Amino acid sequence: MHKEERGIGELYSEDPERADELLWGRKTGPSRRGFLRGAGLASMGAALGATIPFHANMPAGLIPAAFAQGIDFQLEGKDPGLTVLNDRPVNIETPPHLLDDDVTPASRHFVRNNGTLPDPMPLSDWRLTIDGEVETPMELSYDDLMNDFDHVTLRLQIECGGNGRAAYDPPARGNQWTTGAIANSEWTGVRLRDILHAAGLKQSGTHTGHFSYDEHLSGNPDLDPISRGGPINKMMDPHTIIALKMNGEDIPAAHGNPCRVIAPGWPGSFSQKWLTRIWVRNQVHDGTKMTGQSYRVPRYPVAPGTDVPEEDMMFIESMPVKSLVTFPEAGTEVAAGMPFEVRGQAWAGDNEVAAVDVSFDFGATWQRADLSPPPNRYSWQRWRANLRLPMAGYYEIWARATDDEGVSQPMVVPGWNPRGYLNNQCHRIHMMAV
Amino acid sequence: MKRFSLGSGAALAALLALAAPAVAQDNGEAYEFAPLPPGEGAEEVYYNCRACHSLRIVVQQGLSRDVWDEVLTWMVEKQGMYEMPAETRETVLDYLAENIGADDR
Questions:
Q1: pTM for the model
Q2: What is the ipTM of this complex?
Q3: Could you tell me if A383 and A309 lie in one domain?
Q4: What's the CATH code of the domain at A117?
Q5: C-beta atoms of B53 and A332 within 8 A
Q6: Nearest-CA residue of chain A relative to B105?
Q7: Which residues of A113-126 are buried (b: 16+ CB within 10 A; e: fewer)?
Q8: Chain A: nearest CA to B90, how far in angstroms?
Q9: Residue A176 contacts residue A423 (beta carbons within 8 Å)
């Protein structure tokens, strides 16, 4: 049982009504049921990640059964080898050796949530609103999207802007992602440009703002957990889609059921999950996490720890060139002098990867890997190399990708920035030859 | 292919201890405010922060007092947190800076 539960359990066993008040701010009236003037209902609901339909009946001092079970958290449908960074909100990353599939299965796709993980909305209730700078605002059902538009199926990389944050010093606040907030699943959906054309996009429409039906953790219905959007050119790119299927199946709850944006190659936050509305704007969208320092980096290089004024921060657009060693798993033993395969994935935001080089002598010499072209633009690319470790001992395999503009990954952590974005340092694994 | 283990040197043990800050207490009882590390103010942090989000996100951090101060302000201004009484806020900030500070990660 998780340690945290003991604290709650003890609190409830000592004085259940005081525990109600301390934990949730809950008070009950003379009936000793329900929530007096709603006090504590929102925070209990937020902790449960659900509303409580029969809250008026709930006895005072009752510990919600959801907390009576252990919370060594694991999300249904996820590979147990994934790393849970946080359970409320849910944030889960994937170790490198579980990213060896060319098409990332849903079970191995990282999860980055800002608010609740909502129960899927019934399809009959779900609508997508397109409004703002369009001639004909539209409200589309799932069936409309399935039947009235052309569909495309593409392998698309999505990477969290904060992937690699854990390596920055001084540390940047936020989830401490290491290398695993990247995935490349096969998504089927409608090109956003086709929907915007159908609605009659106006010349004045320069940006989008995206909205969703997940809820803010505070339980305050006036707050959006996240509402980002991007410049119209990115949204009109034929690879930016409103996805209806993930790997040929309905999109799982954790990945935005029934429908989400995929704006590949840019920070994942452009790819709103649980989508309900695209608001076409005549200015940069100013929703939650569009302002301040979120998803922004300094316009000029800064020394680690610098306090950068907000007006000197700019939006991140394309993610940088990057690669992973996905096979073998770090820590594998091989026979000295015998050839073996090393392989991985490489990607470069808006660009294509042009080369991957590997080294087993701490970067003194490099060997060019075989690199597959992407099956479609914005897919990651498979690389492979045959290596032979000359004698018994400890080795590190380093991989370094270069994009089609000649830009390579740095061997050390790149420029520090206040929120810890864009770390594309080379990946390395350790191996032993015996 | 077989995997090898790096053994159990002191450095590795120290790393593991860092990765699991909420180790069991001497008497074998789990710490009441786990996963927070024990310290004055842990109770206030536990109840004020856990109202909206899990404490795993708190213990992942390692921030200077100034950055923790900004985070608490941001929680109230942008994230719907109620405004803690000044004294409680000071206790919370002291605890975070002391126990989950920039040198603690």
A1: 0.83
A2: 0.77
A3: no
A4: 3.90.420.10
A5: no
A6: A171
A7: bbbbbbeebeeeeb
A8: 19
A9: no
